[in-house]
Structures are given as C-alpha cells and as structure tokens.
Amino acid sequence: MTLKLFIEDALCSVSIDKIYTIDITKEACEAIKKHTNLNICKYKFIIEEGYIRHVKNRHPEDLHLLYKVPVILNSFTHVEKSITQDKQTKQNEVSLVFKKTFEDGTIKMVALRIIRGNILSLKTFYRT
C-alpha cells in the first residue's frame, strides 16, 4: 500500500489499528545520531491512522502535505531532541522534532520515540 492510499483510507476509517511503516535510511540515522546523540538505527518509523485524523482535525491546512513525511524523515533540514511530559500519564516522553524547508515554507514533524519495540511514531505534523 502506498502512503497516499494509507492516508486516504485513514481519513475514511474510524479504527485505530492500521499502521504504515517508512524505512529510515542509514544516512538519516547517522545524521540523527550526530545532532541528537540518539541511536535509532534499529528503529522503524510508523504512522498510525489516528494521527492522520489528528492532522486533519488540528492542522487541516497541512493535510495535503502528509505525503512528504518520508522526505522529511530522510532528508530533513534540522532535527532536535525534545523532552515533554505526557498530559495524561505525566511521564516524560522523548521526541524528535524534524524540520524540512521547502520552497513554500517549513514543515515541522514531531515523532515520538517509543523504546519498547524500537519504534519512532508520527505524533503531529504542521507548517511553521
């Protein structure tokens, strides 16, 4: 399934169990490690369908840009580590904030690092 088809399906769905996986290139992994000191080379990047709907509901003007996630992930302009507190569990979460500058502006993508299972999961996505 292509990312475009996954996004279209997620927008029509009410479930939360479908996941799309994107490979993290070796070059991106090394750059992330250099800039954040996090080694995510054995991680997989996932997009859960619920987060597609989050972007639709909270950042509808940027929904059409979601197909650029693989480009942002693997050829970002800037990446940084961010530690935030989960509003529900009050636990600290480590996220990576990716930025990619395009001709029409900069897109910020936040990916949550989930240690169990070596997963990096899309959390939100918007234009700055």
Could you explain the architecture of this structure?
- With about 130 residues, the chain is an alpha+beta fold.
- It is about 30% helix and about 35% strand.
- It has four helices and six strands, in the order αβαβααββββ.
- A six-stranded mixed beta sheet has the order 1-2-6-5-4-3.
- Strand 5 and strand 6 form a beta hairpin.
- Helix 1 packs across helix 3 (about 50-60).
- The chain starts with a helix and ends with a strand.
- The model has no long low-confidence stretch (mean pLDDT about 90).
What keyword list fits this structure?
128 residues, alpha+beta, 6-stranded mixed sheet, 4 helices, 6 strands, 29% helix, 37% strand, globular
Structural class by helix and strand composition:
alpha+beta
| Distance between the amino and carboxyl termini | 29 Å
Number of helical stretches of at least 4 residues: 4
User: How would a crystallographer describe the biggest sheet?
Assistant: 6 strands, mixed
